[in-house]
Recover the amino acids of this structure.
């Protein structure tokens, strides 16, 4: 650290380093127990958001969720690769489902739109507001991360992790835990970008398995590839032959239930 720069700051300023104003969610959860009526209100708010997500995503068809970073712009090679992936998934008849934000989420949605496919985004409200990318047909916004992650998991026949950071790892590992513990069917989990994900696979194979914290079969849940066509072919084959997916019509919303596509 630059000693000169440090000497020119006050103790009060240094005490604020790495800190930011707390969001409403942080204030809620860090306080612990709340009054009973407040907790009941929280339950109803969660229920409302959950119902909203179910009502919208129920009509989007067979989805493949693509997890990825918001930080790569369209000049980056990962963007072009992910856009190709989105197009291949859409051509195979899948709805491309992402977090709806910029970066590689946008690339996957954009690839689907390139070929006339259907594209959905599940946004999360953040302190620095995340705007929907312009390539989604259906846009659903969530306040709570855990509901958003549930929606990304519930309607998908496969999960593809393109390069990303903490958020991508969080979503990827949660899916793997659900499959490992048989809370979810063994849907395909694909790491797209062999070199990017090599350190993670090395950790799994060379540390976790020898230590006995996971079984060798758990590593077989993951497929690594650089090929959008290969990933799509694997997903299509597993979805149709193992999970009974067909090319039948999508469910239609009912106006008398106030449902929207």
């Amino acid at each position: 650290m630059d000693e000169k720069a440090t000497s020119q700051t006050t103790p009060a300023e240094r005490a604020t380093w790495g800190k930011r104003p707390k969001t409403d969610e942080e204030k809620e959860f860090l306080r612990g127990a709340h009054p009973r009526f407040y907790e009941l209100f929280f339950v109803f708010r969660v229920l409302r958001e959950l119902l909203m997500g179910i009502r919208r995503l129920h009509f989007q068809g067979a989805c493949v969720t693509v997890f990825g970073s918001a930080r790569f712009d369209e000049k980056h090679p990962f963007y072009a690769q992910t856009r190709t992936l989105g197009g291949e998934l859409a051509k195979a008849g899948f709805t491309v489902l992402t977090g709806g934000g910029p970066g590689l989420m946008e690339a996957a949605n954009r690839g689907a739109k390139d070929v006339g496919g259907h594209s959905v985004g599940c946004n999360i409200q953040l302190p620095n507001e995340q705007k929907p990318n312009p390539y989604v047909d259906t846009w659903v916004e969530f306040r709570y991360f855990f509901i958003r992650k549930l929606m990304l998991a519930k309607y998908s026949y496969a999960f593809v992790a393109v390069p990303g950071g903490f958020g991508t790892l969080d979503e990827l590992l949660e899916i793997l835990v659900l499959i490992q513990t048989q809370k979810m069917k063994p849907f395909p989990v694909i790491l797209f970008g062999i070199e990017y994900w090599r350190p993670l696979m090395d950790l799994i194979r060379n540390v976790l398995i020898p230590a006995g914290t996971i079984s060798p079969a758990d590593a077989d849940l993951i497929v690594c590839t650089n090929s959008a066509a290969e990933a799509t072919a694997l997903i299509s084959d597993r979805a149709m032959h193992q999970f009974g997916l067909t090319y039948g019509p999508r469910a239609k919303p009912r106006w008398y239930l106030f449902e929207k596509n």
